[in-house]
Amino acid sequence: MSIREINFDGIIGPSHNYAGLSLGNLASTHNAGHVSQPRAAALQGVDKMRANLALGLAQGIFLPHPRPDRAWLAALGTTIEDADPALAANAMSASAMWAANAATVSPGPDTADGKCHLTVANLKTMPHRSHEWGSTLAQLEFAFRGDAFAVHGPIPPAFGDEGAANHMRLAGTHGETGVEVFVYGVAGGAFPARQHIEASKAIARLHRLNPERVIFVQQSEQAIAAGAFHNDVVAVANERVLFAHEQAFADREALLIALEARVPGFEYVEVPASEVPLADAVRSYLFNGQLVTPPDGQPTLILPSEARETATVWSWIQRHLASNGPIRRVEVVDVRESMANGGGPACLRLRVVADPATVDPRFLVDEAKLDSVAEVIAREWPEQIDHDDLQEPALIAAIEGARAKLLAALDLAELA
Ligand code: SUG
């Protein structure tokens, strides 16, 4: 059995639009009302997956959810035709693309029963995301069906849970027993703290983690108030390395002491506020890179092009590479359409450490399968969506038809 990290990217759905639904997510608020380009967005996502494959990484996919979510609107006593525009926008969001919020994942080497545990995120803080979990759970149950996995339903909605975006795992290598860090929020100035500690604690229990190898750490109020609505906007971990902004955590000293004691060879790469202010970290998504170890063993950070365009960030990167620090290589990808809603490269993917042979192969991709995905997107995805047209019958028919074509092409019509 060969355990490795697989990145599952959410395919960007045909209803991708800018409705400004996420308070505390500065890009979402700033771009509210702009015209979106779903086709270009989804093709950018496919190109990011191609870049991962070219690095030798294992790649998977999750599918767009049915939009509009007619069942959710029915539960609210309305329809897409009759709903007021704000409610309609909540039913039309393509936010399931951000797979880092699909679930929290604890790989087999960390759990008492040796299974890889996944808990679907309830996403209860934002109305447009609160109805994602049903379709996500259906996909998790398909993709991770066998004995190697245990898939859990959502944490009861009393406690907000936003999945892997607030969870980091450190281990010598992916296949070794790791230390899992759960990051929760308490306060965020004017903005909501989306991850509750009670949800994180419940997940650690449900996943049967060894309490001595679990750390709960508070995200700093300053970071949330600056627009870091998830921890993965200010920190990312991979194997023995934690890469974080100086102001990411409420008590960084305690976190570092705990990690040093538990992770052999632990390395901490901190970006000081004096070199990259929080505002630049949030604007550029420096920490929302995918920090990965390709087969050549060179720790690589996959960054959005906005990082290259932010002077403080790009100079920090150049200095780090020149110093032969723990990050050895930087790759730049263009995911601008997702970034404009606050979703960077790391938001678009869920990391699962497992043997690819135990995953339903329909959820794994190679170049040829990405070619067929790209072909459906290029033919079926709307070119543009003006937020005022979200209730137009022709647009809705096009969006529903496009998703059905993709499911058919991937032999996943059962998910319809
Ligand atoms: O939850 N944006 C998402 C972005 C999620 C990014 N994920 C991670 N950081 N892991 C959010 O705020 C914008 C939707 C809109 O405004 O239409 C949105 O939901």
Task: Give a concise summary.
This protein is of the alpha/beta class. It has helices at 26-30, 38-54, 70-75, 85-92, 127-130, 133-143, 197-206, 221-225, 252-262, 278-284, 305-308, 311-322, 336-339, 367-380, 393-409; strands at residues 4-10, 58-62, 103-106, 116-120, 149-152, 167-170, 179-184, 214-218, 235-238, 241-245, 267-271, 290-292, 300-304, 329-333, 349-354. The protein has a single domain (4-415), classed as Succinylarginine dihydrolase (L-arginine/glycine Amidinotransferase, Chain A, 5-stranded Propeller).
Question: Could you explain the architecture of this structure?
Answer:
The chain has 416 residues and is of the alpha/beta class. The protein has a single domain (4-415), classed as L-arginine/glycine Amidinotransferase, Chain A (5-stranded Propeller), CATH 3.75.10.20. Helix content is 32%, strand content 18%. It has 15 helices and 15 strands. A hairpin with an 8-residue loop joins strand 6 and strand 7 (179-184). N~2~-(3-carboxypropanoyl)-L-arginine binds next to loops.
Give the tally of β-strands: 15
The name of the CATH topology is: L-arginine/glycine Amidinotransferase, Chain A
Annotated CATH architecture: 5-stranded Propeller
Structural class: alpha/beta
| Widest beta sheet: strand line-up | 2-1-15
Keywords:
416 residues, alpha/beta, L-arginine/glycine Amidinotransferase, Chain A, three-stranded mixed sheet, 15 helices, 15 strands, 18% strand, binds N~2~-(3-carboxypropanoyl)-L-arginine
